[in-house]
Structures are given as structure tokens and as C-alpha cells.
Design a protein that fits this description.
- The complex is a heterodimer.
- Chain A is an all-alpha fold.
- Chain A starts with 8 loop residues before the first helix and ends with a helix.
- Chain A is globular and about 80 Å long.
- Chain A is built from 14 helices and no strands.
- The termini of chain B are far apart.
- Chain B is mostly helical.
- In chain B, strand 1 and strand 2 form a beta hairpin.
- In chain B, strands 1-2 form a two-stranded antiparallel ribbon.
- In chain B, 73% of the residues lie in helices and 3% in strands.
- Classes of the chains: A mainly alpha, B mainly alpha.
Amino acid sequence: MIDLRNIDIGKIELRKAALIRLIDMAEAIRCFGTAAAARLLSAAGTEITPAIRAVAIVAVIGVVSAVIALTCGGFWLSNFTQAYCMSLAILGCALLYGQLGLVSLCQWALVGAGGWVSLRVYHSIHPPFFVTMLAGGVGASLIGMFWGLPALRMRGLYLALVTLMLAGAFQTLVIVTSFPVGGPGFLGQVGASGNDRISMARPIFAASDTGYFLFVAAVTLLCIFLVEAHRRSKPGRAWALIRKSEQMAIAAGVRIVFYKAWAFALSGFLAGIAGALLAGLFGQLDASAFPTTNSIVIFIGTLLGGYEVWLGAFLGGVLTRFIPALLIDLNVNTNVGFIIFGAALLFALRDPLGLGGQLSILAERFYKQLVGHLRESLKAKAAP
Amino acid sequence: MSLLPFVASGIGLGAIYALSSVGLVILYRASGTLNFAFGAFGAVSAFLAWQLTGSGVPLPISCIVGIAASAAIAYGYGRVFAPRLSHRDRVVRAVATLGIALVLLGGMALYWGVGVPRRLVLPTDLNFVPLFGVRLSVTRLIALGVALAMAGGAGLALSLTRIGLGMRALASDRHISAAIGVRVVQIDSFAWLVNGIFAGIAGILLANLNRLDPGYLTFLVIPAIAAAILGRLSSLPGAFIGGMVAGMIEAMLIASSPEIANLRSAGPYIAALIFLMIFGAGQGVGARE
């Protein structure tokens, strides 16, 4: 309890004066800014334009990444870097499911394929990191398209099963061949001792853990823009029409096979980039990190985050890595993670929007209210 | 080198796959849901049976308790979660069963632990039947028999009984079935109950034939799906034969060169992929969806 008799009246007066000065300053800024704000608001409107969305994407990922880069190190930084890679894989998965309604249960296998290709390219010619990364992306994209082509005849459950079979086959294949570690021959293996394994180098400008994390964040941002650009241009319209009705799309002259293959290629590309980034993070990859179950977890992450909006993929990736990492950090049995994911999946399925969808609806509503409110107050000011 | 011993071991492996794939196809035929949790239901049953026999309960009673637990979980899922997803497409319903599978897997791994070498021992393991120079344990023959009986029994029940007719109607079109008076929720949860019983039996046999591990038993469903694809997900004899073929393929790959032998567990998947590429999804239940 505050004893009223002890309050120093002088101090309160001082504070009041300071507050009044602050309010005066704010008023001055507002008067100066009103004209500019009025122009901006009348131009902006309450609709979410691509420009506003782009600003939101940069702001959210920029702020989140900056906070992580400033506060985390070691274990958590590595886990968040992996989380961003998972976001890329989920972005591809969400593209197929959200745009075309196709369930892909082999996304993590494609990440592995991308990692394999980039490690192979790195150990052969030691190119700059960008080249290695793009090689991983293009490699996984070609594989994704090649896998996708027979799947074009499949839809719904059968496509999901075909991709699951592919993920199963990949798991066996990669355990037998394992990832290249700089040895001779195509498979690039070294002797059993493993002492002369060569790690893949990170880019020169992002050699530190924090630097590499920021680099991964920048690549994630670029990839989100790549997908957004697709959604808003011709491929996005073609996908929407195909999803609505294939017969309609054919009648409208949309080349179904071409655009479906394009979607598979783009989703493979994103997974491949993720694989190359993971290879860069650890220097080498281990076959045991690519079980079929991880591809299933990626799809669960897609549903949890929500597949309609970019925020969903981002949140889904962060969640799928954050929960296991948190359990390890708290020294809880990691099997609890399975229970959490399973239960979350059961509830996520009842709400197709997912976490990202819910949040972006909330943000959109808030933005519209804010713009509307500002407009009203400006109008009120202009009236007298 | 004679291939006959590998044929015999393929029969043993095929029995495992056939048992699971027949169980999968039965529910798919009856309610249109592909149950990814089939392995997890079975694992619960096997673990309970193992735990109870370990603490001195007679084997038949422990097995019955295990099967009852698996049936109860399956019935609960069919009653609580399945109806809420009934309006969604087949993929979503299949993926939802992954949710319950993961919950069960996590729970079992938490309680019983992973990677512990364990096996559920049955008295029938001690008797062998020689076939092409390979000793097949009686348990494997029982598994084969159970798979055949399940396929035959369920096939007959689906085509001859009133409730089987309801199940087929339900799997074909839920709304129209409901409109003409099929008691949709009851029949659906009954199908789940039967599926849980089959999963429980299969789980106990599989934990004996291979090993008792939560992850292994839960994800045995993936090669089983490959086997079910060879039967187009809709034919019960097809699922049985598919399981046997998948087992044979794996056994034959062991007989080939050592490099290929390492890849043998990809055999069922690649067979399923080739099958789908050549024959397509066909006209089975849900093929056009």
C-alpha cells in the first residue's frame, strides 16, 4: 500500500511537466505527419495489397530472426536454423496442398535428395555456396518433377500413398548409399574410420553460427517471395483453376500437365534448397536423419501451420523443430513430442486454417480497423 | 543356388504383410478410411499382452485383454473423431489416423521404451514345420491362416450380411447411405471395432514373428500399405496375395547380389509404384476421388 502522506508533491509536478512536454512533442509530430498520413491512408485503402503483404512478410521474418539472432546461441541457434529449413520444406508441401489439393508425403525425402545433390556437387568441384545451394535446389526439383510425373495420373489418397512409397524407398536407398563425404567415386565415401571426412564449407560471409542463421533467414525470405510471386501470377491462376475443376481448366486452355509439373518442380526446389542449407549447417548429412516418418511430420507441420498463407509454413516449420528442441532442453523424454504432434494433428484437422491462417485473419482484421480508425480521426480533424 | 529356401522364408515374411494389409483393406472397404494407426493399435495389444504374461497372467487371458484394449481404442476413435471428419475427403481422414497413431506411439515409447530388444514369446514358436529346407514355425503358419481366415470371413460378411451391406454402402457414399436409412455412425464405429480386434490379433502375432518395438510395429503399416496397393486397396484376396508377393519380393532380393540385398526393404514400395504406374489406380473404392 502507498501511504499518501509520504508522496512528494514536487516530484509529481516534475513528472507532470515532463509528460506535458512529451505530449507537446507528439502533437507537433502528428501535425507534421497528418498531411503525409492522410495521403498515405487514402492511397492504402483497407484492402491488403501485395505491397502491404510484402512489408508484413519482411517485418515478421526480420523481427523474429533478429530476436533469435540476438538472444540465441549454440543449441537453440542451430535448432532455429533447422526450423527455418523445415519451413522451406513445409512451404513446398503447403504449395502442393494449398494450391492444388495434392498431399505429398515425401517432402523430407526431397530435402534429403537436395542435400545429397549439393554435397555431391560440392565435393566434386568446390563451387561457391550459392552454386552448391542452387544445384541442390535444381537437383531436388528435377527429382520432384520426375517423381511427380507418374503421380500426375493419381489424385487424393493414391497420390499420398505413392509419395509415401517414394519416401520409404528413398529411406532405404539413402541408408545404403549414405551422403557423400568427399571420398572417391560417385558415392564419395571414405573408409570405415571416418577420419578423413570433409565438411561442406559455409559461405565466406556467413561462416559464424549467427551469420549462417541470418543467411538462412534471408534465403527463407526470398523463397517465400518466390512462392508469393507464383501465387499471384499466371501459374497461381492456373493452379486455382485446376483445383476448382480439371475439366474446366482444360476447357479454358490451361496446360494441366505443365502446370502440375511446375508445382512439383517448385516444391522440390524449395525442399532441395532446404537440404543444401542443412548440409551447410552441419557440414555433412547423416542418413539416419531422413526416415519416412519425418516426411509425415512435415505434412503434419503443414496442417498445423495452415497451408493457405505464407505465415503458416513459417510457423509450422518453427513449431515442428521448436517442440522437440524444447523437450530436449527441458530434459523431457522426446517421445512426448509424438503425443503433442498427434494430438495437435487431430485438432488441426478440424480447423483447415491452421495457426498461421488464424493469425493472419486476426492481423488482417486489426490492420483494417487501424486504417479505418485513423481515417476517421483524420476526417474529424480536417472538418473544422 | 536354389531359390526354394528363399520362397519358404518369403512365405513367412509374406504372412506378416498379408495379415496387416488384409486388416487395412477390411476397414477401407467398410468405411472408406485407410487406417494408418492399424500398426499402433496392434502394438498396444501386443505390449499389454507382453506385460500381463510377464506378471504371471495366463497367456490366453493376456491376449484377450490386449485385443480388447486395441478394440476399445479403435472403437473410441471411430465414435469420437471419425464422425467429425466424415465430410472431409479420404486423404484427410487417412491423415487423421496418423494423429492417433502418433499419440499411441508416443505413449508406448514413453512407458515401455524404444530400442529394447524384446519379443512376445508364444508356445507355438517351439514347433516347426520343415518346408524346402527352411523350418517354418507354427506361429507363422497360424499368421498365414489368420490372414486367410480374416480375408475370407470379412469378405463373406461384407457381401452376405445386412451389416456388411451397410458398410459397403457407407464406404461408397456416406450421404446417400444416411438418406436411405443406413445407420451411418453405428455401422462406422462397428467397422472400427472389428478393425481394432483384427489389429490386436495382428499385433500380437507380429510382435512374436519379428520384434516388440513401438516404432517398428507402428510403422509396419507403411510396407503393409504397399502390399494393400498391390490389391488395389479394395480386394481382400488381392490384399492377401499382395502381402505374400511383397514378402516374396523381399526374400528374393536377399537371394540376389549383396548390393541389392541391402535395398530389399524398398522392394514392396518399388513393386507398389511399378504396379500403380502400369495399371493405374483402377476402379476400386475411392479411385476416382
